[in-house]
Amino acid sequence: MRVQVVDHPLVAHKVTVLRDKNTSSPVFRQLTDELVTLLAYEATREVRTVPIQVETPVAITTGTAFAKPTPLVVPILRAGLGMLEGMTRLVPTAEVGFLGMARNEETLDIITYAERLPDDLTGRQVFVIDPMLATGGTLVESIKYILDRGADSVTCICLIAAPEGVARLQEFHGDDDRVHLVVAALDEGLNELSYIVPGLGDAGDRLYGLAE
Ligand SMILES: O=P(O)(O)OC[C@H]1O[C@H](OP(=O)(O)OP(=O)(O)O)[C@H](O)[C@@H]1O
Ligand SMILES: O=c1cc[nH]c(=O)[nH]1
Ligand SMILES: [Mg+2]
User: Virtual CA dihedral for 175, 176, 179, 183, nearest 10 degrees?
Assistant: First the structure.
């Protein structure tokens, strides 16, 4: 598994505003959208391409197109939805599958309440988007799900990760070079409620309001 923390002043600045508890939902959504495009730039470096011919007003030249099968983007509902538009804007030919997962805030067990993915992911490059990697329970489960269906690779794009979550991914997928993780910030750790510290609070709530 390869882990990349994107070290860039634009990313650091946007994450700082995102963390601010006084940042409103509309601004939070806008920054999430902007951040995913910056992270996706790194995360899609190994997306498969094929050469194509293109005719400019001046000459015919060789360009680049995404290879088939096209990349599959999988937002983890709810909070991952906030990253979807930024991702599909960059990779417009991508297909989109959905995983609805929520962690029980007391037991931290993961409940999968929705799943809409192709049964066969053979040969697919999959991009999982979810802003928060806390204990890692959600991502470990998602990655397992996707690899079990035959995907070639799973690249997870997260805004904020806790070292505990990264360690959990290492434990389950550390030796697997099909798995990549790209994050904007690696934080200090988890608090007693398994929230990321300093983090930004509950990403789903800040994007979409209270879950109750
Ligand atoms: O690493 P973990 O400990 O599993 O926690 C991370 C998960 O928690 C958040 O989702 P949440 O369960 O709050 O659902 P929501 O997006 O509907 O708010 C977040 O978006 C991740 O999916
Ligand atoms: O800090 C955290 C941990 C899990 N999920 C969130 O949205 N925030
Ligand atoms: Mg939540």
Answer: 0
Pairing type for strands 189-190 and 196-197 reads: antiparallel
Nearest to 101 by CA among 128, 121, 127, 119: 128
Tell me whether 0.90 is exceeded by the ipTM.
Answer: yes
Q: Among all ligands shown, which has an atom nearest to the Cα of 131?
A: 1
Fold of 2-208: Rossmann fold (3.40.50)
- CA–centroid distance, 55 to ligand 2, in Å, is 48
What's the 207 CA to ligand 3 centre distance in angstroms?
A: 9
Residues listed for the chain: 212
The predicted model gives 15-42 an average pLDDT of: 97
pTM confidence score: 0.95
Whether 202 is in the pocket of ligand 2, judged by its Cβ within 6 Å, is yes
Domain ranges of the chain: 2-208
